[in-house]
Every structure is written in structure tokens, then in C-alpha cells.
Amino acid sequence: MGTQVKAIQIKQHGGPEVLELVEVTVPAPQENEVTIRQKALGLNFIDTYFRTGLYKHDLPHGLGFEGAGIVEAVGSGVKHLKVGDRVAYGQSPIGAYAEARNMPVNQLVKLPKQISFEEAAGAMLKGLTAQYLLRQTYRLQGGETILFHAAAGGVGLIACQWAKALGVKLIGTVSSPEKAALAKAHGAWETIDYTREDVAARVLELTNGAKVPVVYDGVGKSTWLASLDSLQPRGLMVSFGNASGPVEGVNLGILAAKGSLYVTRPTLAAHVNTREKLQAAADELFDMIKKKKIRINIGQRYRLEDVAQAHIDLESRKTTGATILTLD
After folding, report:
1. What is the pLDDT of residue 45?
2. Best label site of 22, 120, 190, 214, fewest CB within 10 Å?
3. CA atoms lying within 13 Å on the CB side of residue 302
4. What total of structural domains would you count in the chain?
5. Structural domain of 119
6. C-beta neighbour count of 280 within 10 angstroms
7. How many CB atoms lie within 10 A of CB 301?
């Protein structure tokens, strides 16, 4: 026996038109699994990579990795969760775009009552990404000046606030005056409009010739060189995404030429690879939200059945902050 629910699936790769609303059966949870009745889901750029086939997964499949809801059934061996618990996740087996689903418990965290399902769906992947970037990959101490690309995006707006709370001067790149204002309102120290300004030259100016010790770059191909040119000698290039396409064909000699630079291509999964590490990172994020040092900017909401429009808006750079699917 199982529960019939609505879910989004793709049978082939392509544009937003390949997203289909279908009925699926959610079976009883297995050992170390729970069934979640989902209340809100997060949309992320990675979802479009799986839809287009840039990232591969056997077809047909669902989409989405982030959500929040209520535990509806508990499998054997589950000790720390019970029916009725509020939970959230930022990484999961692919297939979050659904009314209900089964989840492995080691990828779930309990959601404090002060944080809404919508906030959690907008915060988990982006917030935990900001946490590992600023607190683990390059652990900011306070006092640094850093460069963060796409500062008005979902991860960017959280990073702006987190950096400010840490006493860090974040220089954020943006694509419009509106996005510059948004990043500034969320705590960015300065912004650079990359459509009209030379990023590296402006970083040099803003830092009085010192450049920055770390660049956080989720954009990829189009910002690679500007990022390297903004770094101090022995600085760290953190390439954590490829919204403009993947960085390819890199000659390692360029790192020597530009000052013995370091480069890393981190993922969230490697930073939260146990339930304990996941809970610790989430606790730090939730604490920042509860103290109102970080507020989750939900820029747009869509119904599950309107997910194609959500993908169109995400890919055409029309969105700001977090984009969520609502299920209530």
C-alpha cells in the first residue's frame, strides 16, 4: 500500500516544457526513512542543470533537492524523529518536487518552531551553502574584504547578511542597479555592476590596491578570469557553481602567473556528509535566522503545477532571493 500524490517528473531533457505533473505512489517508509508531507519546496539553479541534462540522471526522474514539511510516517530504526515533527532538508535524493516523499533520516534536520516551512525551503540549500563557504571552505574571522559574485541571488543575499554579521566587508557583483540596491540592503559593503564595470579593476580600487584573500564564485565560465585577477597572491578562488556554464580547459599555469593562487571546487555534500555535521551547520544557520541577523528573502512563490514558469523566470535572471514552490 502507498499514498497517491502529485509530483513533477521529466521523461526527456530540454526546456521548461518537459516538466510534467504526474501522479506517483509513495510507498511506506523503509528502514531509516520517514515519509514527509511537504509544505514548501526550494527551487535552485541545479534543478535546471538536471532538466537540461547538463547533470545526468537516469530518465524518467523527478527534480528538486530542497524542502520542508511534517513527518507523516516513520520507518524502522528511526530514533530521533516521530510523526508530527517539523523537518527540513537542503540535499536529498533527486525528486523534491512532490506533495509527499520518503527521505533518508540522515539528510533531515528538525525545524525550530520559530522558522516557517517557507523560510526553511528558501534557506536550507542556500543557507547551508553560505554556511560552508563562509565558515568552512574559507573560515572568515571578521575584518576581511571579500568578493562574492551574484550577490543578489539566493545564496548571495544570505552571504551578504552573514558577512556583515561577521564584520566582513563583502563586495558583491550584480547585473543591475536594482540588484545592487538589494545586495546593499542585505549588508553588502560595496557592489560592482559587471555589465558596466571592470570587476577586477574595481576590486583593486575598492581595496586600495590590496585585492582580496578569497573570491566566492557561483557563476563559473564568465567570471573565472575576473575572479583570478581580483585575488591577492596565494589567495583562494572558491568556484562553487556554474550559472554561466562550467569552467573548462583550465591551464594550471595561470594560477602561478597570477600569484601562486589556490582554487577549490567545493560541494555542500562533502561538508555535511554526516547527520551530525549537517545538524551543526543547520543549527548555526537557524541561530542566525532566529537572532534576525539573517532574514530569508523569498522573492517569488509558485504553485507546484506552475513550476515551468518558475524555471523560465529563474533562467532568465528575473528572480531575486529565494524561489519556492508552495503546497498548501
Report:
1. 85
2. 22
3. 19
4. 2
5. 2-123+296-326
6. 14
7. 16
